[in-house]
Fold this protein.
Amino acid sequence: MDSSLLVIILFALFAIVMDRLGKKGRKLPRAPKRPEPSATLPPPLPRPWPSQRSGQTESAKGRLGFKIPEIKGAPPAPGHIDAGGVYREAGAVLKEQHELQQEEQAARRHHEAYEQAKRLEEARIRAEEQAAYTRDAKIPQGDAGGPRTILPMLTPESAQQAVVLAEILGEPRAHRPGRWQQHHRHE
């Protein structure tokens, strides 16, 4: 048993010595040096030419060597250009809005006419079905058009008949809650 303990101690010492020797011989590689951001960025973009407006024609003349002539019939400067950069004549926008409004009104009228025709067709079909039902059921024409009452007229004779029918068709008396059942519940 002493020999097994001695072997374990020797193995632990050997592992410690080898670990220390292994660290001295092995060097970690250096991290690569990162270049500066200014060295890796692309060169700046050239500036665009200034837009040609009335005050900048002299700078264009100096750059081109000649003056750009005025074009007859050309659209006027920025006053009549919309947000999208498209030139529009003075009444064009109003004309487009008017045409769009007329198209919407025509579509609305067409839809209303369609709905009206649909309602008329449904009413015609309903009337035909009602006439066919009246004819098949052999209902006299005078009764079919008049108002129908859901309940019959209440008279003393009809009330008496209702009580008799309720007794005949209703629940048997033995199953109805009675006076004797209430007394048994309270006792």
Summary: Helices lie at 2-25, 37-40, 57-64, 92-137, 141-145, 156-169, 179-186. Residues 92-137 form the longest helix (46 residues). The chain has a mean pLDDT of 77.
